[in-house]
Every structure is written in structure tokens, then in C-alpha cells.
Design goal:
mainly alpha; 61% helix
Length: 67
């Protein structure tokens, strides 16, 4: 027959194993809920500036007396 102290130690060991298993960290990888947006304002501003500079050069060549 197993003594009361041995049962108590076995029960304590089992509880310790369950407690350690419950405290293990977990890592979860999930997709974002909102879509990823990329701001392209810089490209659009540069494109508009090039078009305006080309038009200004063309206007100056056509009308040299403006300035």
C-alpha cells in the first residue's frame, strides 16, 4: 500500500505539470483585418510637376515677350 506522503507528492507533481503546461506562451500569426495601403502622393506630385514644367517651357518658347 502507498503511503499518504507518496500520494501527496505524486498529486503535487501532477498539479505542477498541469500548471507549467498551462503557462506556456503561444505565438499566433494572423492576417490584418484592414487592407494595407500604400501612399503614392510623391509619385503623383512629381508627375504633375514635370507636366507643368513642360507646359511652362512650351509657353515661354511660344510667347517670349510674356516675361
Amino acid at each position: 500500500m502507498v503511503s499518504f506522503g507518496a500520494r501527496r507528492a505524486a498529486l503535487g507533481g501532477a498539479l505542477l505539470c498541469f500548471a507549467l503546461a498551462a503557462c506556456t506562451p503561444t505565438v499566433q500569426v494572423a492576417a490584418p483585418k484592414e487592407p494595407i495601403t500604400i501612399n503614392l502622393n510623391v509619385k503623383l506630385d512629381a508627375e504633375v510637376r514635370v507636366k507643368i514644367e513642360e507646359q511652362a517651357a512650351k509657353d515661354i518658347q511660344e510667347n517670349p515677350d510674356v516675361f
